[in-house]
Amino acid sequence: MTDAFAQHLATLYACRACPNVFGEPVTGAVAGASVMLVGQAPGPHEVEDRRPFAYTAGRRLFSWFERFGVDETEFRRRVHMCAVIRCFPGRNAKGGGDRVPHPLEIANCAVHLDREIRLLNPNLGIAVGTLAAQELIGESELREIVGRTHRAERAGVAFDVIVLPHPSGRSTWLNKPENQKLLKRSLDRIRKHPAWIETFGGERPSRPQ
């Protein structure tokens, strides 16, 4: 790990800029990663476990990558995992699920995301969910953006972005067969992307779905 990346992590983990979030910042840091996964925000289990996608949504997410031979342990070891905001925003007071991060919280944490992009200079970003997609490519309508490869530029770095729907069990987006096809198309694009191949040592056979 470079001194600059270590200093970034120290700055990130010391951040207390947002008064209405809970716990400490969470990130699955991988110095030198060519692939970066960006989610929305950690939940209470992620704060407790100190790593992104540590609960049921994570199991579903990692099952997608297991289709082409990359298990959770290997994924975490090689892919830098982060989020639009790094602290648990709390529960939604008006209904189930977690609170959507406030624009000011997103802006506060954008400093950390931008610094990571500059330090890692990734070739591929995987945006998980609408909020991450909005931050990386400026669009959030899943039917229009899942299944495609987008070219993004942020923090002075240009890189490809492939969008996945959020794997939360609360989401009904994947209940439609046409959306399942879009997910498969995105996963195929990830598997064949040069940064993925470089990271995981070449294409691996897909498992039956």
Q: How would you sum up this structure, described in words?
A:
- The protein has 209 residues and is of the alpha/beta class.
- It is built from nine helices and five strands, in the order H-E-H-H-H-E-H-E-H-H-E-E-H-H.
- The chain has helices at 3-14, 44-49, 56-66, 72-78, 103-120, 130-137, 142-145, 177-192, 194-200; strands at 35-39, 80-83, 124-128, 149-154, 157-164.
- It has a five-stranded mixed sheet.
- Strand 4 and strand 5 (157-164) form a beta hairpin.
- Helix 1 runs antiparallel to helix 5 (103-120).
- The longest helix is centred in the middle third of the chain and has 18 residues, at 103-120.
- The radius of gyration is 16 Å and the shape is globular.
- The mean pLDDT is 94.
User: How is the main sheet built?
Assistant: 5 strands, mixed
* Parts with pLDDT < 50 across at least 5 consecutive residues: none
Supply the helix-strand structural class: alpha/beta
Radius of gyration: 16 Å
Strand coverage percent:
5-15%
Write the element-wise H/E pattern from the N-terminal end onward: HEHHHEHEHHEEHH
Overall helicity? 40-55%
Calculate the terminal CA-CA distance, rounded to whole Å.
37 Å
| Silhouette | globular
How many DSSP H or I helices? Answer: 9
Strand order of the largest sheet: 2-1-3-5-4
